[in-house]
Write a structure and sequence with these properties.
The complex is a heterodimer of chains A (332) and B (72). By secondary structure, chain A is α+β, with helices and mostly antiparallel strands. Chain A is 30% helix and 25% strand. Chain B is globular. The chains are: A alpha+beta (332), B mainly alpha (72).
């Protein structure tokens, strides 16, 4: 059985953190450069009592407003901010959404590559005849992993959620994938404490890094330069592999949606991959980097604004924490 | 690469108004480092890291990292 994307909706938390507020909190921090170079003016931040699960519920409700929810027969949630170690957030989400009890539901833990992996899982379930309509939701609140004095990450990351329905189809619209993994980069984007390996520390050491930024081992740490080097080395190969997997040349792709990491990095990757400006999505001004949600939010915006139109081939490219990466081509 | 081209690039990255030479003082913050990583990759095929640039205080320090033989 073939598969297609049958609807996307997203939800962004109400609270907005503007660059100006960060500038007031961190005197000397340059908000204009962040806006012009990194491409971020504001980001949405989940309320203290609003979790990735709450946000996932809202995104799912939006996409189910136009879809008979009794037909959903599998639920997959991608998050690195679950409510609990156990039970699985997707199980709670099944109940909250009032989905059938005769469905499979599970979480998986990936970041910026997550959307590609979820599409592959949904396609797999459909092509094996296990499911016909998969509800796949990405939801992330990196803000909750962040140290308050970490201006670098507070400026880059936002919170957000996106729900996609992947359904069985007559013609294949989700094409072949290419994936990659290198756990050698694990230390470069990590929350060290709080899992089974290391307890949370009561008074963790405040560690300075980058420019004007601090983190602790209880919080998220990102080595931005190393992540940039990783993308420079691996993303061009990933794009080439995804094209090869589909027997396509780069000219046959109508549009490219890369994970929206930061504007400077994206422009450099675009040039390296020899993609014309008008075929390449960059828009993260109002959301920041929302991790696994950047690609579906971008795709939804492109569809709504007719930037991509039915029949066009779009390459989706995700890469980040893990390191983990993946790409595919879809037909709109 | 001609040194003059490097100096132009440095002026651009660090938004310097004055004429740049090897002794020009520079301070590599996170955003400048992003640009330098791209510049080193594009022009020298080199991966530049945060630890490479930790002790960079002048343009000549960057020339040393790239290798002086790469400039004319």
């Amino acid at each position: 059985m073939n598969s297609k994307i049958n609807g996307i909706e997203y939800y962004l938390p109400e609270k907005v953190l503007y660059n100006k507020e960060l500038e007031e909190l961190f005197p000397g921090w340059d908000s204009s450069k962040t806006e012009s170079k990194i491409g971020i003016r504001q980001r949405h931040i989940a309320d203290e009592d609003e979790t990735a699960l709450d946000m996932a519920e809202k995104a799912c409700e939006k996409v189910l407003a136009n879809f008979d929810k009794s037909k959903i027969d599998f639920l997959i949630l991608c998050t690195q901010s679950p409510d609990y170690f156990l039970p699985t957030s997707a199980c709670i989400l099944q109940d909250r959404l009032g989905l059938s009890e005769n469905i499979g539901a599970y979480d998986f833990n990936l970041g910026c590559s997550g959307y590609i992996y979820g599409l592959a899982q949904a396609k797999g379930l459909i092509s094996c005849g296990i499911a016909k309509n998969v509800l796949f939701v990405v939801s992330e609140t990196y803000s909750k992993h962040m140290y308050e004095k970490d201006v670098a990450n507070r400026a880059i990351f936002g919170d957000g959620s996106a729900a996609t329905i992947i359904s069985a189809a007559d013609v294949e619209r989700i094409h072949q994938f290419s994936f990659g993994t290198s756990g050698s980069g694990a230390e470069n984007l990590i929350v060290k404490n709080g899992g089974m390996r290391n307890d949370k520390e009561i008074s963790p050491e405040e560690i300075p890094y980058g420019t004007q930024s601090f983190y602790t081992s209880n919080h998220i740490y990102m080595n931005g330069p190393e992540i940039f080097n990783f993308t420079i080395e691996y993303v061009p190969k990933l794009v080439a592999n995804a094209l090869a997997a589909n027997n396509m040349s780069i000219d046959e792709i109508d549009y490219f949606i890369y994970h929206q990491a930061n504007k400077f990095m994206l422009n450099y990757l675009r040039k390296k991959d020899k993609i014309p400006k008008d075929k390449f999505f960059i828009d993260m001004e109002e959301t920041g980097n929302i991790v696994s949600a950047t690609i579906p939010v971008a795709l939804k915006k492109c569809i709504d604004k007719n930037i991509v139109t039915p029949g066009q081939k779009v390459m989706l490219v995700g890469f980040g924490v893990g390191y983990s990466w993946g790409a595919t081509i879809i037909t709109i | 690469m001609k040194k003059s081209e490097l100096f132009e690039e440095i002026a651009d990255i660090f938004e310097l108004e004055e004429e740049v030479n090897e002794e020009t003082t520079i301070s590599v913050d996170s955003l400048a480092l992003l640009s330098l990583i791209a510049f080193f990759d594009e022009n020298f095929g080199m991966q530049l890291t945060g630890s490479d640039t930790k002790n960079v205080s002048k343009v000549t320090d960057l020339i040393k990292i790239a290798g002086p033989e790469k400039f004319s």
